[in-house]
Write a sequence for this structure.
């Protein structure tokens, strides 16, 4: 693979798409949205952003399969190599004018991400990673710190189970068990950004139920590339498919989140 080409195409795609996101976010008008599922929304901006990204990827890689959140309607991911695109991660934030959103693109090969980027158009921060090629924030390499933060000083992020509100009680028990042991917990509303922040050392851990491959592929690549720990709720590698993710920068914090998930949430998952 020509990694330089992949990086420059992904960068062009997310930069171009982010123009429509900034237009929408700072327009100060009502954003028109539709319900995809209960509590799951899509706007014209999601669709426009996806068209822009898909056109740029298609022009550079005409034969490749591209899976965009707003156009993919299969249950199963394909085999082999393909791209995943979340044209606007944090649509609920976007609709409310809450400026915490991102655009993300990743390349998957044989079931694992090999390159990915997450762009925050509000702060103009581009996180980009390539397997065995390092992770960069606005062109500057992110170097993993050797010091492991104490669990008690760690900052953890999560997402609420908005699609599975039936899980709120076991989720809150999990939350409580983790909250008692760490410094504090954040909920930003953009999982792609949470994972990029974890790679960059801004947070130390993350967990969420039922995410989609386009939300997490780029972040997983960056975290693994920097030596972090990523698994699903069963401690195995099915996370891209099942979307139940635990990710941390250290093994000790991983154990804390994994144990809390296993004892509280797992018995209620189907
Ligand atoms: P999306 O905006 O691309 O749909 C955070 O919980 C993650 O869940 C986000 O990455 C977001 O991705 C997705 N999500 C979908 N609907 C949501 C909702 N109602 N509230 C919060 N997050 C939602
Ligand atoms: Ca989205």
């Amino acid at each position: 693979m020509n990694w330089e080409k992949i990086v420059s195409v992904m960068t062009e795609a997310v930069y171009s798409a982010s123009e429509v996101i900034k237009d929408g976010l700072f327009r100060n008008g009502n954003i028109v949205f539709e319900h995809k599922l209960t509590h799951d929304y899509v706007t014209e901006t999601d669709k426009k952003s996806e068209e822009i990204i898909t056109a740029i990827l298609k022009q550079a890689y005409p034969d490749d399969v591209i899976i965009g959140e707003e156009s993919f309607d299969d249950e199963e991911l394909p085999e082999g190599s393909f791209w995943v695109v979340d044209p606007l991660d944090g649509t609920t934030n976007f609709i409310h004018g809450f400026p915490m959103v991102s655009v993300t693109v990743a390349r998957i090969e044989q079931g694992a991400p090999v390159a990915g980027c997450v762009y925050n158009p509000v702060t103009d921060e581009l996180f980009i990673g390539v397997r065995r090629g390092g992770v960069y924030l606005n062109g500057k390499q992110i170097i993993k710190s050797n010091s492991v933060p104490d669990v008690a000083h760690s900052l953890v992020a999560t997402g609420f189970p908005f699609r599975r509100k039936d899980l709120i009680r076991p989720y809150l028990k999990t939350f409580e068990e983790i909250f008692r042991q760490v410094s504090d917990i954040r909920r930003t509303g953009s999982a792609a950004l949470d994972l990029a922040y974890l790679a960059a050392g801004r947070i130390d851990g993350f967990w969420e139920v039922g995410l989609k491959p386009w939300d997490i592929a780029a972040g997983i690549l960056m975290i693994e590339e920097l030596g972090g720990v990523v698994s699903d709720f069963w401690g195995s590698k099915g996370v891209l498919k099942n979307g139940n993710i635990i990710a941390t920068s250290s093994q000790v914090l991983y154990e804390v989140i994994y144990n809390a998930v296993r004892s509280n949430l797992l018995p209620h998952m189907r």
Remarks:
- The CA atoms of residues 174 and 237 lie 21 Å apart.
- The pocket of adenosine-2'-monophosphate (ligand 1) is lined by residues 39-40, 69, 86, 89-92, 159, 162, 189-191, 208, 215 (CB under 6 Å).
- Residues 3-141 form a domain with the Fructose-1,6-Bisphosphatase; Chain A, domain 1 fold (CATH 3.30.540.10).
- DSSP finds eight helices and 14 strands in the chain.
